[in-house]
Each structure stands twice: as C-alpha cells, then as structure tokens.
Amino acid sequence: MQLKFPQFFVAWLIIFALTLGGCTSGIESSNTSPISAATTSTQTVSKTTSESISGMKDLPRLEGKATVVMTVNGAPITIELDGINAPITAGNFVDLVQKGVYDGLVFHRVVRDPQPFVAQGGDPQGKDPKFPATRLGTGGYIDPKTGSERRIPLEIKPKGANEPIYGKTITDKPELQHKQGAIAMARSQMPDSASSQFYFALADLSFLDGNYAVFGNVTEGFDVVNNIKQGDRIESAKVTQGAENLKSLE
C-alpha cells in the first residue's frame, strides 16, 4: 500500500515534526561519526565498518537470522530479524529482547490517519505506568554497565553492496525496505541516535527508505500489528530461533 499525495505530504510533515524516534534529549553532535570513505554508491562501501564509529565494535551483532515472537493483546506477532543485511541493528534488538527490555513497554505512537503509517514503541520509560504518556518517546535503553544510553549507528545496506553503510542516510535503494510489516529503528534527527525504540510499518513507506534502518519484517500476525492501539503494551518478547547467532562481548 503506497502513500499518495496529499497523504504522502502530510506523513512527511509528521516525520520531521516527530522524527520517528522521539529520542531528542541529550543528543550530542559528537555522537555522529559518518564513515568518511562511504558514498551512496553500491560499488563503494567502507571496508573498515567495525572501526568507523566509536564503540561500534562493542555492540551486539547478529550473524545470520533470528526469530522473535512478540505478544500484544494476547496474540503473537512473529518477526524475522535480518542480521545478514543489518547485523548491528538486528543484534541490538535481539540483545534487548533477551534482556527483557521490551516486556511491558507501551506503543506510545500509532498513526493511521490520513493513511496507515507506523506503530511505534520501545521507550523503556513506558514500563512505569505512572510515567506521563505525553513524555513517552524521549527515552532509550540505559546500559547498566556504563550508566548511559546505548546508541547504535544508522545502518543501511545499499542493494547489491557487500556491507552496510554506517552513520549516514543514502539515496540508493536499500536491501531492506519499508514494505508493509517491516520493523525499523526509530531515531532523532541525528543519524546515530537510535537506541531501543522501533516501529512497524503499517503500509509500504518507500519514502523512508535510506533514511531509517529496517532490520526485519513481520512474517505472521500482521493482523495483530494492524490492530495495535496507542497505549497497548507488549506483554512479552521472546527469541524463539537464532539466539545462537547473537554475538556479544558481555
């Protein structure tokens, strides 16, 4: 389902107004370290991705695929995560699932008008039922080892490329696209500001391709996703397959 003008234009305004990520507090320019050797060409991708962004080599990485079953409103959503094309983004999500970070969190932003757009959740502050709903969308995962928010770089693999590009948006068509049922990371306007917030694409959103990191898709239970209401909670999220593909230094 493609967004069409003028709905497309309205959705575009929504993106810039709310930045699809909410993580707008404490963002520092020093957190953004684009790969200097990377370009938007599918023929030229940096070969030093593991060293190109500070701290990237310490992040969890999914080397292969994994399956997560998320339960919302008593019904399962099966998500296939693609660590082949988005190893760090998928690895971060699997790691947070295994840590129980998503259990009990709220979907704080669901946009269906004027056309289906996104269902967004993953703010850890939402685990507290007393936390003001109006402030949800501003938090990320706080690593207990460092006491600071874990941030992951924007990771997008151009179609036909050998490796992803990190720290910058691209204009080429990516391997993982915003098809209906895609799962992607929310972030602020800073490319490397994603942490724990994610969103499901409720329609084909090709205008987001190259700007936000898709890392998997819903394989079963999209009807459950399609019925998520703002304020609904994730009852549980479990890795059911591929846990052995997660590589972490912890």
Automatic annotation (TrEMBL):
<dbReference type="InterPro" id="IPR029000">
    <property type="entry name" value="Cyclophilin-like_dom_sf"/>
</dbReference>
<keyword id="KW-0697">Rotamase</keyword>
<protein>
    <recommendedName>
        <fullName>Peptidyl-prolyl cis-trans isomerase</fullName>
        <ecNumber>5.2.1.8</ecNumber>
    </recommendedName>
</protein>
<dbReference type="Pfam" id="PF00160">
    <property type="entry name" value="Pro_isomerase"/>
</dbReference>
<dbReference type="InterPro" id="IPR002130">
    <property type="entry name" value="Cyclophilin-type_PPIase_dom"/>
</dbReference>
<dbReference type="GO" id="GO:0016853">
    <property type="term" value="F:isomerase activity"/>
</dbReference>
<comment type="similarity">
    <text>Belongs to the cyclophilin-type PPIase family.</text>
</comment>
<comment type="function">
    <text>PPIases accelerate the folding of proteins. It catalyzes the cis-trans isomerization of proline imidic peptide bonds in oligopeptides.</text>
</comment>
<feature type="region of interest" description="Disordered">
    <location>
        <begin position="117"/>
        <end position="144"/>
    </location>
</feature>
<feature type="domain" description="PPIase cyclophilin-type">
    <location>
        <begin position="77"/>
        <end position="230"/>
    </location>
</feature>
<keyword id="KW-0413">Isomerase</keyword>
<dbReference type="InterPro" id="IPR044665">
    <property type="entry name" value="E_coli_cyclophilin_A-like"/>
</dbReference>
